[in-house]
Amino acid sequence: MSALAPIVLFAYSRPEHTRRTVEALLGNELAEESVLYVYSDAAKESGDQGQVDETRSYIRSITGFRNISIIEREENYGLARNISEGVTAICNKHGRAIVIEDDVVTSPLFLRYMNHALDRYADQKSVWHVSGWNYPIESDGLGDAFLWRVMNCWGWGTWADRWAHFSKNPERLVNSWDDQMIKRFNLDGAHDFWSQVTANLRG
């Protein structure tokens, strides 16, 4: 493998969830060789402050990775902005990233799989992200890994040159996609992923 991809963890106000996520990552054989960035969002309202403080206290106690950098937001970014700006910063610095939210419990082979996949598809520009999770589908004949048209966000990775195309602009999609494009986006009608786009448009 080439240099290990940095892990980017996004946390907010769930200290126990965050602890379980970190402990699972530490169960990976590549953890002690990996760099960890933690983005801790600020409280949205005063009622969340205690849980945010407790989460930050735990984050500051983390050990076991090669290096740990903590970014504590001074204002509430919200999940979407925190992730989009955080992933952009880390991809710009390292060229790739493994992304985890604070409620994802990974297997002990997660970091090895993700790093191998990021190496394997680094030069295949049609592959925009790799995922460590998938829906429970019938997997006969698919092999150890497979390609499809869905982005899964429960433990994923990408490269700077692919992430550069990301734009959260649901209005553009709603105004420019026709029924055939929406059907393809919905995996030919297998699931209504398009409703997430329209929900984002509504705020």
Order of neighbouring strands in the sheet with most strands: 3-2-1-4-6-5
Helix/strand/pairing class, anyone?
A: alpha/beta
How many angstroms separate the termini?
Answer: 41 Å
| Beta-strand residue percentage | 5-15%
How would you state the average pLDDT, rounded? 95
In short:
The protein is an alpha/beta fold. 38% of the residues lie in helices and 14% in strands.
What does it look like?
The chain has 203 residues and is α/β, with parallel strands linked by helices. 38% of the residues lie in helices and 14% in strands. The protein is built from 8 helices and 6 strands, in the order βαβαβαβαββαααα. It has helices at residues 15-26, 49-60, 79-94, 110-120, 160-163, 170-176, 179-185, 194-201; strands spanning 7-11, 35-40, 67-72, 96-101, 130-131, 156-159. The radius of gyration is 18 Å and the shape is globular. The mean pLDDT is 95.
